[in-house]
Amino acid sequence: MSNLIKNFARPDKAEEVVTFGSLDAPIQELLKAAFAVRQHAYVPYSGFKVGAAFRAIPSNQIFTGCNVENAAFTPCSCAERTALTKAVSEGAREFSVGAVVAYQEDVFTPPCGVCRQFIREFATDDIPIYIGQALDHRLETKEEPFHPDDPILSTSIFNLLPSSFHTYRK
After folding, report:
1. Which of 8, 11, 41, 100 could form an S-S bond across to 158 if both were Cys, CB 3.0 to 4.6 Å?
2. Taking Cα atoms as reference points, which of 92, 87, 91, 48 lies closest to residue 68?
3. Which of the residues 16, 80, 121, 140 is marked catalytic?
4. Tens-place pLDDT, residues 54-80
């Protein structure tokens, strides 16, 4: 019975909105990397750009990805899956933290359901996920992508996908 409870994905902490300035430098770096790669998104159909970044362990290397659309829609690739697939193709299999950056007015844009399951595949524990809003006008004015008082959603894969399916590979 104890393995059943141990393997039941429950969040370590509740979701909360924090400010960019309150985050440690490595988390700020991850959000900035997600913002930067978002600019490479190929989105001729929706115009909805997303960037993602994940920090691999034990290397601490950051892997980034953007969304890539296709006229057939089914073969589209979300930013989160692009980043993780890139990481796996280069030998990374475990991650300590992730970040997702997109823009919708007055709302955070968390990973879609497929991406949540994809992230969970490589999360042996509850990893934090930070979600920020990309304000593109800051590119035009050459401002930093995030200001210290910008809100960031601090969540985790277990919050985003509670009671999730996992193979519990060894």
Report:
1. 11
2. 48
3. 80
4. 999 999 999 999 999 999 978 899 999
